[in-house]
Design a protein that fits this description.
Blueprint lengths: L1 H7 L12 E2 L5 E5 L3 E6 L4 E6 H4 L10 H16 L7 E6 L2 H9 L5 H17 L2 E6 L6 H7 L3 H7 L17
Parallel strand pairs: 1-5, 5-6
Antiparallel strand pairs: 2-3, 3-4
């Protein structure tokens, strides 16, 4: 992990802000369902969505841990938009308590979850942000919920300023 960071780090690191920045303050939401996942960056209008069968082909996503499924779009959002969070202490909101605990402890016994935690840690180090997580009611996350269920029509109707097409998900997010 450190070799990956050293290869890309420019040697400069500014102090983090004194206060935590709620992920909703930077206008990013994420969500997962048994169908798929999604995330929306209201500041830029960018969003992503995908079906599990395309990104976790070797995982039984219909029966696997929701903690894994909820963590995936959080880590993906940090990879795509983490450069916008420099010097921030980000608070991720998640409707799965197990995922909240995993993010806050930065560890899990599950090897696949640990792979994602390492990706999140590397992105945080490279983009100079810190993170924590708190629980959020599912009802307060309608846009990302629509993306996670593949309901692009509802999403685009509810977010008319969103980009016309989703962002491409990097290949490194296919397990």
């Amino acid at each position: 992990m450190w070799l990956c960071i050293v290869e890309r780090w420019n040697g400069v690191s500014m102090f983090l802000d004194n206060t935590h920045t709620d992920i909703q303050t930077v206008n990013v939401t994420t969500d997962s369902s048994r169908y798929g996942f999604g995330g929306y960056n209201k500041n830029t209008g960018n969003y992503f969505l995908g079906e599990w069968k395309d990104y976790l082909p070797s995982v039984d996503y219909k029966n696997c841990s929701m903690a894994l499924l909820e963590l995936y779009p959080i880590v993906l959002s940090a990879n795509l938009w983490g450069s916008q969070w420099s010097r921030k202490r980000i608070i991720f909101h998640c409707d799965n308590l197990a995922t909240v605990h995993i993010i806050n402890r930065k560890r899990s016994k599950c090897p696949i979850i640990m792979k994602l935690i390492r990706k999140l840690t590397i992105d945080a180090a490279l983009n100079n942000f810190d993170y924590t997580s708190i629980w959020l009611s599912s009802q307060k996350n309608a846009l990302s919920d629509a993306l996670s269920r593949g309901n692009l029509f509802f999403f685009q109707e509810s977010a008319p300023t969103a980009a016309p097409h989703p962002e491409r998900i990097p290949d490194l997010f296919i397990f």
